[in-house]
Design goal:
Largest sheet: 7 strands, mixed
Number of strands: 14
Structural class: alpha/beta
Distance between the termini: 29 Å
Order of helices and strands: EHEEEHEHEEHEHEEEHEHEHEH
Helix content: 25-40%
Shape: globular
Length: 314
């Protein structure tokens, strides 16, 4: 078999699940750090002429995991692989996708340049914060969606008679909410009018749409400090929702996210395993984790066998 799956240190658990789904194993590589913090990688098996996939979420500590991924790509390129695909379930720096002020960087583009320069031939991501990040790459980029696994879970939670409304926490999330709504119970869509006053600081102002007497499901691509999420949940509750749930693909969960979720009016927060949960987050009963391994494994299989990846979403 010419397919080899390697894993960085950011999400070994997810890599193992992907390998099991593919009917293979995580290939051997030594990753260690010298006393000064430098990363060293040694590939422990012959990969000459093989198609290699590296699974590495660039989640916190973001810089360490990005550097580790770049060095793994370089090591594999020098080992004469046929191709190197970086499977990045969570793409760090994705929120820095445009200039927000004079003399500021577009860091998501810089990361794309680094991956390409290191020798990456293709990238697979999941639920990019901004879809246009795909355009930062001059190599193929497949942006997968966690929507199928989240929808399956929601269908198991609610009956066909439940009155649901999907709530976007800001204007940018309306398309996502609409995509979910048309696939389950022909649900309604609402939006929170959010004004951001600084990084990780947002104030939910008011609700556009009706949630009165309905089960509200707040959708977002990621949860960082959970400030936006909790504000949105309070706004929805004040407007008459009977129960409030939340769904997101990426659980960054920076402090004080876990405490905010624990003390919130949310019934359940549904996330995927693109980022491993911290021990503190694992203790929060409201947080329910779904696996993205099936989608990632199927995408890898289709890429490797030259089948359509886009048909995964139809």
């Amino acid at each position: 078999m010419r397919l080899c799956l390697f894993a960085g240190s950011s999400n070994r658990g997810l890599a193992t699940k992907v390998a099991e789904t593919l009917g293979t194993h995580v290939s051997d590589a030594t990753i260690r750090r010298f006393a000064d913090g430098e990363v060293f990688v040694e590939i422990e098996e012959n990969v000459r002429g093989k198609d290699v996939y590296i699974l590495q979420s660039t989640c916190p500590p973001v810089n360490d995991h990005i550097m580790e991924l770049l060095i793994m790509i370089d090591a594999l390129k020098r080992a004469s692989t046929n191709s190197i695909t970086a499977v990045i379930p969570y793409y760090g720096y994705s929120r820095q996708d445009r200039k927000v002020a004079p003399r500021t960087p577009i860091s998501a583009k810089l990361v794309a340049d680094l991956l390409t320069a290191a020798g990456c031939s293709r990238v697979v991501g999941m639920d990019l914060h901004a879809g246009q990040i795909q355009g930062f790459f001059n190599i193929p980029f497949d942006n997968l969606y966690a929507r199928p696994v989240i929808l399956d879970h929601l269908k198991s939670l609610f009956s066909k008679t439940d009155d649901l409304v999907f709530v976007a926490p800001d204007a940018g999330g309306v398309e996502r909410a609409r995509a979910f709504a048309k696939r389950i119970n022909d649900a309604g869509v609402a939006m929170i009018d959010k004004r951001r006053t600084g990084p990780n600081v947002a104030k939910a102002m008011h609700l556009i749409g009706s949630v009165e007497g309905k089960i509200a499901i707040i959708l977002d691509d990621m949860i960082d400090t959970a400030g936006t999420l909790v504000e949105a949940a309070e706004t929805v509750k004040k407007n008459g929702a009977t129960k409030i749930y939340a769904c997101a693909t990426h659980a960054v969960l920076s402090d004080p996210a876990t405490d905010r979720i624990k003390n919130s009016c949310l019934q359940q927060v549904i996330i995927t395993d693109t980022i491993p949960l911290s021990p503190a987050a694992q203790q929060v009963d409201k947080i329910h984790v779904l696996s993205s391994a099936g989608i990632l494994a199927e995408a890898i299989r289709r890429i490797h066998s030259y089948e359509s990846v886009s048909s995964l979403f139809t």
